[in-house]
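hey can u run this one w/ protoporphyrin IX containing FE bound, need the structure tokens asap thx
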Amino acid sequence: MGLRFLKISVVYFTIAVLIGLVMGIIHNFTLTSVHAHFNLLGWVSMALFGIIYCIFPSAAQTRLAKAHFWLHNIGLPLMQGALFIVLVTGNPGLTIVTIIGSLLIVLGVILFAINILNLKSNQNRISN
Ligand code: HEM
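ok here u go:
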């Protein structure tokens, strides 16, 4: 689970910086929100989830972690894919998909928080 999150996070990081680079080159900042969310929910958050699940393997093995993984990884492409289309076409028709995607992410974050709050202070932490 930890490694899966880490691998997906570097894919988002690569796409996010490429979008940033292209925006800078062509001086068109329409996709700033997609760039920022790919960086922060795709790269930063997922890399943190991955590191935390690697440090606390017992948290990674729960049903909460599995649900969190899928909610985040379905929610983010839905939310940002729909936002991308809305921003590029100027047609707000897919805004509802952006809202549904963000709700999935928020639900996943709540499950992640419950999972981490359930950890005991020295529970199955990896040792060096
Ligand atoms: C090579 C890497 C990067 C490039 C070329 C890049 C480029 C850009 C550009 C061109 C903008 C639009 C600026 C504007 O609207 O005036 C932007 C906005 C933003 N970037 Fe990046 N960026 C990079 C990396 C990152 C990283 C690593 C993060 C976060 C982890 C990040 C977070 C943001 C945020 C939050 C905004 C929105 C700022 C705002 O609207 O005030 N960027 N970036």
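The chain has a mean pLDDT of 95. anyway lmk if its weird
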